[in-house]
Known about the structure:
Helix content: 55-70%
Shape: elongated
Largest sheet: none
Number of helices: 5
Radius of gyration: 21 Å
Strand content: under 5%
Distance between the termini: 70 Å
Amino acid sequence: MDEGFEDFVRExxxxxxxxxxxxxxxxxAAEDLLQEALTGLARHWGRVSSRGQPEAYxxxxxxxxxxxxxxxxxxxxxxxxxxxxxxxxxxxxxRTPIVASCFATL
Length: 106
């Protein structure tokens, strides 16, 4: 393996893993996503490093992989998961307008 590639991974790996985690929401999925992106970078290291943009290559691969889910699996990495709704402080459940209208028609 090229020493420049190893240096790049050693210097930027943690930051890239954080990006992958932000895209997936899961540590294991982030590691898998980053590994896929770095594998692609390793294959094209000579061309990418000569242009001086290895981090841009990896970031784009991370974003693409998070959206498409990679070649082997569907997109189930949690990219589009909505945050949970806030609960009322009083402990009393509140009804949404849809639920309230359903109860009104009963």
